Each structure stands twice: as C-alpha cells, then as structure tokens.
Amino acid sequence: MSQTQPPGSPTIRTIAMPADTNPAGDIFGGWLMSQMDLAAGSVATQAARGRSATIAVEGMKFHRPVKVGDEVSLYAEIVHVGRTSMRIHVEAWRRERHRDDGEQVTEATFTFVALDANGAARPVKGD
C-alpha cells in the first residue's frame, strides 16, 4: 500500500454519496470497484484508440473504508501492453472534503483487451 498519492492528476475524481453505501453505512465495495473499472477503461480506450473491455481484475485489496461525502480520486496507469491486451494498475484514494491529506483505500490491476467493430480482439497498437 502506497503512502503517497501518485503524481499527476487523477483519471477520475468523484464524491461518495449516501446511495452508494452498504448496510453498515460505508461505501459499498462494488461501487468503488466500478469506479476503478471506469478509470482503467478510460486509460485503456485511449491507449487502444478505440473500444476495449475488461477481461480480468487481479489483486483487489480494500485497505480502508470510504465514507459518505469523501472525495475519491482514482489514479490509473498502464503497467504492461501486450499484443491485444493491457494491464492497468488503479489506486483509489479518499480525502475528507474538509482536509488536505488523503489515504489510499483500494488498489487492483485490471486487464483489458482491445476490440474491433465486431467485438473481436485486435492489436492494441493497430498493427
């Protein structure tokens, strides 16, 4: 688990809302995972210059809970590009809206495959 936020701007920044909670009142892990998938998908689509789809999620770790009202920043970075696939590491950070400092809450590596117009795998780099 990282102690410092990744450099640069987050891929996505959002606010955790009451509708996103689980029965315990914390933000539902599925909501957070979907936000991470959106961030990874944004990076994958840009890298592939077109459609891409999630095919795997590895190492999903929930380090800390997210609370209602927290600002959630998602940092996504490509860690490997294959012929038709990309592995993208995503870190989620929370910050109480009245504070300056944040903490990492979740991380995972998403694998995406580049798709052609028919939904078949295609080269990422358009070879």
TrEMBL record:
It holds the Pfam family 4HBT. The keyword DNA damage does not apply. InterPro entries: Cytosol_ACT, HOTDOG_ACOT, HotDog_dom_sf, Thioestr_dom. Residues 6-118 form the HotDog ACOT-type domain. Keywords: Hydrolase. CDD domains: BFIT_BACH. Belongs to the acyl coenzyme A hydrolase family. This is Acyl-CoA thioesterase. It comes from Paracoccus benzoatiresistens. The lineage of its organism: Bacteria, Pseudomonadati, Pseudomonadota, Alphaproteobacteria, Rhodobacterales.
